[in-house]
Design a protein that fits this description.
- The protein folds into two domains: about 90 residues, Arc Repressor Mutant, subunit A (Orthogonal Bundle); about 220 residues, D-Maltodextrin-Binding Protein, domain 2 (3-Layer(aba) Sandwich), CATH 3.40.190.
- Strands 3, 4, 5, 6, 9, 10 and 11 form a seven-stranded mixed sheet that branches.
- The chain has eleven helices and eleven strands.
- With about 325 residues, the protein is of the alpha/beta class.
């Protein structure tokens, strides 16, 4: 008979502590989230180290760093806690009108601009004590962030997802070329003029090669990227004060108008950039948690406001 582990020695709260320290990489911040003192966090980590026979977290000038063993354990422990939360939430039910839970949504700022204003307006009426944190999460890491519970729901331009995820299409994003009013190119730049101009690219990683460059490469063309910035609103601010161009979502039209920016159609050869489907995505297992299921539904309910919103165009035809 296989030796059985005595689970009576394991305090579930130690796994919660591990999960939070792994997310925060800092004992003080973890204590703040758990309403525990740093000494209580350190004491709990000591107990967990004895159980798991590993240091787990090593001191670092900016906090702590996980050991290889802790990194290996992160996903299984997160999954265990998610399943426990799902069981408990199913038993207790979820009442958004009374809940004080805090959820996390991960999205690029373009999707946040499009969906979240309507979502927060709805939550103010139907879930006044629920708190929502928004993290800037890009498509490259979105699914890993869901798996690691760094986000409850993500809003992303992702398709062909693994079966462990559930996705609901929210709207089709349309991209346009942003340029300041009175720009020398006017509102109908040709492909040659577009490529000859200087551009600002939105990139969290400072990578200047984006979706436009992939399309240009297919056409045997390149462009000059003069700047990279981490968000679309900052890109619009730069465009407003310079001759830079930026590819931006049309959902940013209201912000563009305030800054005196014109949104023009991309040159015809870049038509593949015109539309990108945006979906709300959650981990299928996480939807056993009634709160996460409710949040996904609330996001989907907010999306019709995006679909109804008129897309002001400056035609290039």
């Amino acid at each position: 008979m296989l030796h059985e582990i005595d689970l009576s020695r394991i305090d579930l709260n130690l796994l919660v502590l591990f999960d939070v320290v792994m997310a925060e990489r800092h004992v003080g911040r973890a204590g703040g989230r758990l309403h525990l003192s740093p000494s209580a966090i350190s004491h709990g980590l000591g107990r967990l180290r004895r159980v798991l026979h590993d240091p787990l977290f090593l001191k670092h000038p900016k906090g702590v760093v996980p050991t290889d063993r802790a990194t290996e354990l992160a996903a299984p422990i997160a999954d265990i806690l998610q399943r426990v939360r799902g069981v408990i939430s199913t038993a207790e039910g979820f009442d958004p009108a009374r809940s004080t839970r805090r959820f996390t949504i991960g999205a690029p700022d373009a999707a946040s601009i499009a969906v979240l204003p309507a979502l927060f307006a709805a939550l103010a009426r139907t879930a006044p004590q629920v708190a929502v944190g928004v993290r800037t999460i890009m498509p490259q890491t979105a699914l890993a962030d869901l798996d690691a519970r760094r986000a409850d729901v993500v809003i992303q331009p992702l398709v062909d997802l693994p079966p462990r995820f559930v996705a609901t299409r929210l709207y089709d994003e349309e991209f346009a070329i942003a340029l300041r009013a009175g720009h020398p190119l006017g509102v109908r730049p040709t492909l040659a003029q577009y490529c000859a101009a200087s551009h600002v690219v939105v990139s969290l990683t400072d990578d200047p090669f984006g979706m436009v460059d992939r399309e240009l490469r297919k056409l045997g063309r390149t462009r000059r990227v003069a700047a990279t910035v981490p968000g679309f609103l900052l890109a619009l601010a730069l465009v407003a004060e310079s001759d830079l161009l930026a590819a931006v979502p049309r959902q940013a039209a209201a912000h563009a108008r305030r800054l005196g920016i014109v949104l023009a159609d991309p040159p015809a050869p870049l038509a593949p950039l015109a539309r990108s489907p945006i979906s709300a995505i959650a981990n299928r297992a996480a939807l056993a948690d009634a709160g996460v299921a409710w949040l996904l539904g609330a996001i989907v309910a907010a999306a019709p406001a995006v679909r109804r919103r008129p897309a002001r165009r400056t035609s290039s035809r």
